[in-house]
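User: Round two. Same drill as before: sequence, then structure, for each protein.

Assistant: Same drill it is. First protein:
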Amino acid sequence: MAAATISSRNDSVIGDKRLITALATTAATGDTWVTGLSTIFTAQCDGGSTTAINTTFSGGTVTFNYAGGGAATSADIMVIGL
């Protein structure tokens, strides 16, 4: 699996959780993003140029999956975790 290309990232704290918003310049099916968090509670992505998207996560890593394969550009990502 390749790494998604993250062009910008903003970190915030909400209570005892961390919120990360980021922009993926490119993210293809199977690409991963290591967030630096130890645990992720939710990860969402708007898909950018590709509307059908599913994100899965384990530990602090997000994996991107697009219907029918392919890749997205300019995808907004939001992650909440510790």
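Second protein:
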Amino acid sequence: MPRFLRSWRICVMTVLIACCAAPSTQASPSERLNDFTQWAVRGGRWEKNSDGQIVGYGDATLEFNGGVPANSTIEFSINVVAGMRPRIHFDGTDAYIGNEGFTHRLELYNCQSARGVPLPYDNGQDIKIAVKFKGNRVEFFINDELMARGTTKSTADQIGITLRAGDNFSPGQVRFWNFKVSPAH
């Protein structure tokens, strides 16, 4: 084999190995959602506690800097320590999960043709939530049980996330943790 071909092969193999083996420096959506520095306080008081949970107090709003891919399943855990008006908005879809009434219950809001069952909850209860977006369809799960499904009013390439700990009617204390994002199947 001529010398220049050997050198060329070595060069190409070195580039391929460097490109394929180089670790990604960009954090995944799951990593970013669990990183408190990736969120912007829009109102009230927010902190990350010693357990790694994001905690909001009072009439408080926290907005994720960026978005997650559309056609994703977004999972997290929540504990409404006090109050009764937590909300999780999925910006770009108009949908949100929360409590709008005068009793403790979580449900899917602001969707077209949504059908489901609200979940009664108690303050201090850990709740696992998953929301699956695929096209304009949305499914809402609590503790791995399908609670509601519907059609979003709008779709976007990226879904933003805004957390609310309460409102002026019921300022609360809410903990969020263990965010995970995966492709919707």
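Residues 27-183 form a domain with the Jelly Rolls fold (CATH 2.60.120.560).

User: Perfect.
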